[in-house]
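--- STAGE predict ---
source: upstream dedup step, 1 unique chain passed
mode: sequence only
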Amino acid sequence: YMNEISGARVGLYFEQHGEDTKISWRSAGRVNVAAIAGCFGGGGHDAAAGARVRLPMREAISQVLQKTRECLKGSEDKC
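--- STAGE serialize ---
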């Protein structure tokens, strides 16, 4: 459902697992979310990727949103 919002380029889902936070990215195909996930030690496909980080959810959300915004602005080389 993350990609069904009109105008959304990337969808994110966060889930707490003990001390880790699991992150899932989804894209309608224009954004390579595997490159973003790679910044956090994860991977996947251009349109669907994920990672698991040893951070509290609040901190994970902050870092992931910041990096995702950078990549959406064309700064994927910073990943």
